Amino acid sequence: MNNQYWLKKKLHITLLLILISNTILAQYNFKLSGTFTDVKNGTLICEYIIRGQKQKIITEEAPIKDGKFILFAKLENACAATLQVKDRQFYTLSTIFVPNEEAIVYGPISEDYKLTWTGTTFYKQYGKAKDFIRVYENEFSQADQLMYKGIKAGGNVNKLRKQNMEARREINYAKGLAAVKYIREHINEEGTLGIMASANIDSIPKLLSMYPKEISEGRLKKEIALGLEYYNIFVKERNAAYYTKNRIEMSRPALEFNLKGLNGNLVTLNQYKGKFLIIDFWGSWCTWCIKGFSKLKAFYAQHKDQVEIIGVACKDDDKQWRQAIIKYALPWQHVRSEDGIAEQIYKVYGYPYKVIIDKNGTVIKSFAGNDKEFYTYMDRLLKK
Question: 64, 127, 230, 300: which has the fewest C-beta neighbours closer than 10 Å?
């Protein structure tokens, strides 16, 4: 009799919990749960943005007990979200909430790159993409530890910081290329949006445009549009600031550089006096450079009796450089800037970047990006 009573009691409690759970799920369409290994107890503060005619920031709180937490949200579209442990400034992470999905996270929030993500379809894809990028985040950490170790041992602080900055720059560049490659190879997976910010900045518009319609026009539509908007603002501000500060001086002799061509021959600017010369700074990784090749090739075919082009590959390794020249059938002279000096000489602040030199070896104009004005200017110049 006693056993039957407790069995009925247990069944009643189970049914009650199911009823409560179903009631919650009816109100919300997103669930985030998990375990933080570096927080035993506390309060998790969550902020996410509802985008519409009026943008609205929603703030939710959830208790953390023995590292575990559960949080629910009602979403119309995917949206950016920030999680922070209350009263702990550095215990913060940024992520994305997606309607009709469940996310499960595990690891230290204070080192968010170590977190593992899983759950329903989106978050399995998201977690897989994050795992792929983690190796580069570990390299950042190792570079920082090496610097701190050197400083602690009494090393030259300025020198160690400079070395650290150079190491981080190289890691970040490699990370950006890897992210681009991963997203391209998994472009049918929504979860790749989670590492879009890791991609090389100038590749982002092309990557966003590659998503199939069911993704670009679906629940991620607003976040994709916002990503493109932020990119355009960033590039506009970056170029304006950099150009104002570093623009190349016109009407002065072109500064010489000595770079090796495809056959190992030394290429100099003096070789091209007597013709107009276009120095085209580009890279095999630069989608906008590649996009502009078709028109540049047509221009060169029409005017090569008056104009020469030197393509200067930047931030490329030898193999990628050579393969790109063959793949896109680029018929002009090519060199590769291995040390970045050529870009510094001509104050390149974006790609592609074209510098025009007249027949006497004087710099007369420069253009950043695929500026339509470049061809208008060249047509006027060649008709004089």
Answer: 230
